Automatic annotation (TrEMBL):
<dbReference type="InterPro" id="IPR003661">
    <property type="entry name" value="HisK_dim/P_dom"/>
</dbReference>
<keyword id="KW-0812">Transmembrane</keyword>
<dbReference type="InterPro" id="IPR005467">
    <property type="entry name" value="His_kinase_dom"/>
</dbReference>
<dbReference type="InterPro" id="IPR050428">
    <property type="entry name" value="TCS_sensor_his_kinase"/>
</dbReference>
<dbReference type="GO" id="GO:0005886">
    <property type="term" value="C:plasma membrane"/>
</dbReference>
<dbReference type="GO" id="GO:0000155">
    <property type="term" value="F:phosphorelay sensor kinase activity"/>
</dbReference>
<keyword id="KW-0808">Transferase</keyword>
<dbReference type="Pfam" id="PF02518">
    <property type="entry name" value="HATPase_c"/>
</dbReference>
<dbReference type="InterPro" id="IPR036890">
    <property type="entry name" value="HATPase_C_sf"/>
</dbReference>
<dbReference type="InterPro" id="IPR004358">
    <property type="entry name" value="Sig_transdc_His_kin-like_C"/>
</dbReference>
<keyword id="KW-0597">Phosphoprotein</keyword>
<keyword id="KW-1133">Transmembrane helix</keyword>
<protein>
    <recommendedName>
        <fullName>histidine kinase</fullName>
        <ecNumber>2.7.13.3</ecNumber>
    </recommendedName>
</protein>
<keyword id="KW-0902">Two-component regulatory system</keyword>
<feature type="domain" description="Histidine kinase">
    <location>
        <begin position="245"/>
        <end position="455"/>
    </location>
</feature>
<dbReference type="Pfam" id="PF00512">
    <property type="entry name" value="HisKA"/>
</dbReference>
<feature type="domain" description="HAMP">
    <location>
        <begin position="184"/>
        <end position="237"/>
    </location>
</feature>
Amino acid sequence: MRTRLLGLVGGLMAVVLLALGVPLGIDLASVRTQRVFLDRLNDANRFVQVAQQQGDRSVLAAKLARYEEVYGIVVAVLDHSGRVRAASRPGLRAQSLTAPAQRLATVALSGHHGEPPHAIWPWTGAPLVVAQPVINGGDVVGAVVTLSPTDRLRRSVARAWLVVILGELIAVIGCALLASRLTRWILRPVLDLDLTAHEIATGRMAARALDGSGPPELRRLTGSFNVMAANVERIVERQRNFLADASHQLRNPLSALLLRLDSLSLRAPDGCEAEVDAAASEGRHLAGILERLLHLAQAEEADPLPERIDLAPIVERRIEAWWPAAHAKGMTIGRSGDAHVEAIADPVALSSALDVVLDNAVKFGPAGSTVRVSVEHAADGALVAVRDEGPGLGPDELCRASDRFWRGRRHQNVDGSGLGLAIARTLLEQSGARLELRTLQPRGLEASLRFGVAEPAQRGGV
C-alpha cells in the first residue's frame, strides 16, 4: 500500500513540476532572446543613422569593421537594390548571407520592420538576424542587416535551465521525503492493526494495537479495535475457564464414582458383574473425555513460541515413541523425505500434533499395514505428512474431522473422544502452522502439518 501511495503522490508531483518547469524554461529562453534582440535592434538603428549621414563608403565600412572587431557581430549595409553598399567584412556579398538574413533583408527593403525572433534554444546554431530599413525623405534607400552569434545567449539559457532543473530536483527530493514521512505516519496504524489482527487470529488474544499515532480517524479505529479485542479476549477467557472449571469439578466426583463401581464389582451379586463392568467402562470413557477437554483448554490457553527449528529430529523421536504401539498391532512406521528441514514452529505443538495423528494412524490402520511419515521441503514452507492405510474419510467427513467431539459413523466403536484432531489443529494454528487432511486412493488418509519458513513480521516499520 505504501508503495502504491508513494507512486501516486510521486506521479502527481512530477506532473505538477513538469507543468511548472516547462513553461518556466520556455519563458526564460524567450526573455533572454528578447533582451539580446532589443540590444541588437538598438545597434542596427544606430547604424541606420550612420548610413543616412555618411556618404563615404570607406568610412562607413571602417566603422562596421571596428564594430565586428569589438563585438564579433557581422554588419552589412545594403542599397535599395539589395547589393552590399558597405560591410564589416571586405568582399561580403548579399548572396553569401544566410537564408534568414536574405529574407529579413527583403522585408526591410520593402519598408517593413521584421518580427521579433522566436526563443533561442541551447541547441540552436543559427545566428540572430536583425534587419532595419534605411529611410531618407520617406523613401527606402537601403537596409542594415546584423548577424549576431548566439553562443553566449545559448550558454545563458542552458545555465538558467540547469538552475531550474536543479531546483526541481531539490523540490522532488524534498517532496519525496515529505511524502515518505506522511505515508509512514498515515499507514503505521494500518500496519500495526494488520499485525495485531494476525496475532489474534493465531491465538495471541492479549495482542493490542499501538495507540497514539496516525490521523485522528485511524487513532479512533485503533482504539475501537483494542476495545473489541479486549471484549473478545474476555469472552474467550470465560469460555476457557468454564471448560477447565467444569472438567476439574467433574473429575473428582467421577473418580469417586469409579472407585465405588470397582468396589461394587467385587461384591456384586451373580449375574450383575457385566452391568457393573459396563457402567465402569462408560465412567472411564467419560473420564477420558474430561481429560481431553482439559488438554484442549490448556492448548487454547497456551502461548506458543514459534522459532526456527529442525523438524526432522522431533519427528524421529515421535516415531520411536509410537513404534511399540504400532508393533503390538503388527504395523510398521516408515520414515522418508529430507534429512534436515528447517521451519518456524513450536516444538511442543509439533510433538503434540504428531502424537495425535500417529495415534489415529495406528488406531485406524489395519494389522500388517505401514504408516508412512515424511518430512520434506514444500513450495510454501515445510511439510510433515503422516499417511496410513486405514478406511479414510469421505468428502463430508473431511470437513468435520477436526471439529470437537465429532466421530465418523464407521468409528463409533473405536475408543476415542473426538477431541484429538481438534487439539492438534488448535496447537498448530496458535503457532502459525496448519493441519490438512486428505483421503488417499484406493484407501488411507493423509494428515499434513504445514509450517512456514519466514520469520514473523515485526512491528515498528511501514
